[in-house]
Design goal:
The structure holds 3 protein chains of 3 kinds. By secondary structure, chain A is mainly α. Chain A folds into 2 domains: about 30-275, Cytochrome Bc1 Complex, Chain C, CATH 1.20.810.10; about 280-403, no CATH class. Chain A is about 65% helix and about 0% strand. Chain A contains 14 helices and 4 strands. The mean pLDDT of chain A is about 95. By secondary structure, chain B is mostly helical. Residues about 20-25 of chain B have low confidence and may be disordered. Chain B is flat, with a radius of gyration of 25 Å. Chain B starts with a helix and ends with a helix. Chain B has a two-stranded antiparallel sheet. Chain B has helices spanning about 1-15, 45-60, 80-90, 105-110, 130-140, 145-155, 160-170, 175-190, 225-240, 240-270; strands at about 65-70, 100. Chain B is about 50% helix and about 5% strand. Chain B has 10 helices and 2 strands; from the N terminus they run ααβαβααααααα. By secondary structure, chain C is an alpha+beta fold. Helix content of chain C is about 30%, strand content about 25%. Chain C contains 4 helices and 9 strands; from the N terminus they run H-H-E-E-E-H-H-E-E-E-E-E-E. The N and C termini of chain C lie far apart (about 60 Å). The chains are: A mainly alpha, B mainly alpha, C alpha+beta. Chains in contact: A-B, A-C, B-C. Chains A and B meet through helix 4, helix 5, helix 10, helix 13 and strand 3 of A and helix 1 and helix 10 of B.
Chain lengths: ~400, ~280, ~180
Amino acid sequence: MSTIMEWIDKRLPVTELIKSQATEYPTPKNLNYWWNFGSLALTVLIIMIATGLFLAMHYKPDAALAFKSVEHIMRDVNFGWLLRYMHANGATFFFIFVYIHILRGMYYGSYRAPREILWWIGVVIFFMLMGTAFMGYVLPWGQMSYWGAAVITNLMSAIPVVGNDLVIWIWGGFSVADPTLNRFFVLHFLLPLLVFGVVFVHLWALHAVHSNNPVGIDAHDDKDNLPFHPYYTIKDLYGVGVFLIFYCYFVFFAPNAFLEADNYIPANPMQTPAHIVPEWYFLPFYAILRSIDFLGSFSKLAGVIAMVFSIAILFILPFLDRSPVRSFRYRPLSKQLFWIFVANAFVLGWVGYNPPDASLFSGAIPLILIGRTSTAIYFGYFVILWLVTALDIEKPRPVPKCL
Amino acid sequence: MRLIKTFFAVCVAAAMVPVALHASSGAPVLPEQSWSHTGIFGSYDKHAAKRGAQVAVEVCMGCHSISLIKFDQLRALGLSEVEVKKLAEVQGRSKNDRMTSAMDETAAKDSFGVIPPDLSLITKARKGYEDYTYALLTGYPSEAEMELVKKVMAKGAISEQDALEVQSALLINAHDKEQMKAKLERLVGGANFNKYFPGNFLAMPAPISAGSVQYADGTDNSLKQLSRDVVTFLAWAAEPTMEERKSLGFWVMGYLFVLTILLYAIKRRIWAKVH
Amino acid sequence: MAIEVEENRRDFLILATSAFGVAGVAAAAWPFIRSWSPSADVLAQATSEVDISPLQPGQMITVPWQGKPVFVLRRTPEMIASAQKGDSESLPDPAKDADRVKRPELLVLLAVCTHLGCVPQPIGTGDYGGFLCPCHGSHYDTSGRIRKGPAPKNLEVPHYDFKDANTLVIGKALA
């Protein structure tokens, strides 16, 4: 055995790689459970690719057959219901984990130097994930699939000059139809494989600069670090166990909890459902899109820009935060801003879920007003964080010298 | 900080409230039914589903198809082969055929203005699920309620007292008397009114009434019983693999609990040296 | 000493958990593997049920079974006699007529020519009173045996059973 490994190692240093990047890879000893969500997201990605691959063997990307083929999977294919419910609910857990992963990075300053590139790759993955999820939701070809696709692709028409032609190009026709479904299927298949590749670039970038930690200072010597194995392998595995319990509860006992009833109605281009809602994980961004309605003919484009910018702003976050301290643990003002930001994201989600013309207290507070305020708070977070840190308004508490 | 925490809690709680705000039309709240097949231990009431299959074929399938199910699959509900064949013959089908209605779509569109929706997934495809389907079937005005409507309309103007009475009987909002009057006029004019259908008026006339179907075993054939049975059947038709799913789920959950406890024990031991 | 016991216990715990975890992963692979097996709608086509009561002597029907045509022929006494007479003649693929039927009056054949897979023509088209394959001129007799032409083997008799006096079930139910 060892001679075989020696033979291989001389030609391709596998043992060395595993040692340096996995088993003996130095990891800060004080990582808390919020650091589990990266490995959890990777676990879900693997589950999604595995179930998706097998679903694709039974699914038919054809406007006339797609809906029936999903029900064929649900009814006729052996364990088809399991594959499909794992895939559908996997999307939900994927986004829960990615959101927590992003927020953890925001709270502990993981985007700060020298981890900007690591952070940017993460944002790129997030964009790719949103595209993948959106196109995946179109595939069952139910009413929500169809009208979700119609609304989201129509956003492109807001782009000046080329918008309308662009939408027709994306559709491959004059409306969302068979060509659209077929190309979305291919992209939904391709993108996750690309995501998988970019995840490895993300890990490469991580291993180049090493993990941040709750204290937010650099880990220096061996006293601050632990070998990744067995300490973090077991901690990550334990996290996976806990995740699987929650996940399987939904897969086996409440598989439709996150699905819309309307999506069990076959797509009908002649009739829009009374109330279109995107999947829950897009709701905050959908609310931002709808909140920009006060700019007249410019509203549509502005809404789209605001929505894209609400995520793209994460790219410049590393330069907005000018505090000398990374971790919000020692930054009382930033910490408060952060929790307002998180709570506000829930409010945005709630606004996005409800019809645009709804109101609170029988008309006293129109929902659109709440939406606009929340959108302002969302972007306000980034501006105020910049002001508070750039103008030295925040007085950080003393940071420990070692972990 | 406490203020922030309170704000946070309130926001999260508000976002978690499952009840959506209603834009303008306050849809009536569906009466909650108890079904044997809901909940994590739930399984289909096969007797009710078997009776419901008869109601579905003899009544619903006059117009609707249940095309994702084949007649032969009804044997899973305990129907004998002879019973399956007899039911298939009602729609002029044979036992290996899909459960499609004998009425063709053009004829349906001519008589009702719409193609009657396929019922294969109906209990999963409407908000409120089984409860909605049941509410719809039992939500047409009864004779007594029709009497009340006629009595109120005979007076010309709707008094406050009448409005409240109509509201409690037909679940029409009493605040907007104009709208109520318009609705009652259409109702008296013979339009198909349903308490639970969004907007109240629909293409489908009351499909089931007491005695629509005779059960061979003499089970009560009141409107409520027939509706309950057919909804149970439709819930089965919407997801025949549900019982397999739940029973596998218990093994998986049991396994995962044990595995996670073991992993936690190892994690504790390994980390004991560090802490 | 105490540390050693502790170590041993940990080793056992890790070993047991690893085994348990590996078993779980293996079990999780099962649904994926099983998803390739014929699905319920395909299995439903494993058998074909045929009502043979309307078949008159000399009449033949073609029924689909697993996507292939099957001839069901109610043979006349003359056809049976001709087939049995063939038993003693020189045959390219010797077989007794009695071994090719369950009831003498009912002949069930997979209508796929053993030469190159064409579907032979109905009863009475070939020499020997049987079936002619139009592609390359193979003649099968009233027992479906090859008598003349390029086909090497007799027409295959699929597995079949009688559910009752008038119901023929072609094929074996799977699972």
